[in-house]
Write a structure and sequence with these properties.
The protein is an alpha+beta fold. Helix content is 46%, strand content 23%. The longest helix is centred in the first third of the chain and has 31 residues.
Length: 237
């Protein structure tokens, strides 16, 4: 049976507390039959009540604090925190070896856990959002037309999509975030933002047209990657 770091810590604390409690009880019982033994130290003297307090309550309490501190330091220095859900991949990162999702104390692994070593790698595949905000300025009819817009793309919580993105990033030599940043420049080069078409951000129809314009361009580049377009909107200053 494989015990997690937290479980081992609790077991060790329980053992230490049990041992010190047993020692305390033994000292207390011994003091009842040998009145000459008046302390648990050669240099201290306590009456019966104080001996009872020390042997029954104080020793386990002190041992608990000390054991938590000692074993806590050991475990903190010997464990690695991970985020879930996590997929354990093989070295070529094209196959899932194991999923870590429903795992008690699932975000704590021993540093020597084989899942943290090659040829198996940890990869977090939680859903995340990619949001971009842009501000543009145009000169039209001797005046400056300022338009700001934002769009959002989501990376679904799907291991197959994330595996495909890993391969895509390796092939492109850039992250998916950098790829989206590059798309922004292509988008602004391809689309002519017309001040006579997008001038009223409070107009629902204009917002819908703008959303469709951005969606149509982005989906031609991201849909095959499994990314999802969440929406776009504009504003005018």
């Amino acid at each position: 049976m494989n015990y997690t770091p937290v479980q081992i810590l609790l077991i060790l604390i329980g053992i230490v507390v049990f041992i010190t409690l047993a020692i305390g009880v033994r000292l207390f019982i011994k003091s009842l039959f040998k009145p000459s033994i008046t302390s648990i130290s050669k240099h201290l003297w306590f009456d019966g009540a104080m001996r009872f307090l020390i042997s029954i309550l104080l020793l386990p309490a002190v041992s608990f604090v000390v054991s938590v501190a000692i074993f806590g330091i050991i475990i903190i220095g010997s464990t690695e925190l991970i985020q879930t859900p996590t997929a354990v991949l093989n070295l070529s990162r094209d196959r899932v070896v194991e999923f870590i999702e429903e795992y008690k104390y699932e975000n704590i692994l021993w540093k020597w856990d084989k899942r943290l070593k090659n040829p198996e790698l940890l990869y977090n595949y939680q859903e995340r959002k990619i949001i971009r905000n842009r501000n543009l300025s145009f000169i039209s009819d001797s005046r400056i037309y300022k338009l700001s817009y934002t769009f959002q793309i989501s990376v679904p919580e799907n291991i197959d999509i994330h595996l495909a993105l890993i391969k895509f990033e390796e092939k492109q030599g850039q992250s998916i975030d950098s790829f989206i940043d590059s798309l922004v420049y292509e988008l602004e080069r391809s689309i002519k933002f017309n001040e006579f078409e997008f001038y009223n951000p409070l107009d629902k129809k204009q917002q819908e047209n703008f959303n469709e314009l951005i969606k149509e361009f982005l989906l031609t580049h991201i849909e095959n990657l499994g990314l999802e377009f969440e929406g776009a909107s504009f504003n005018v200053d």
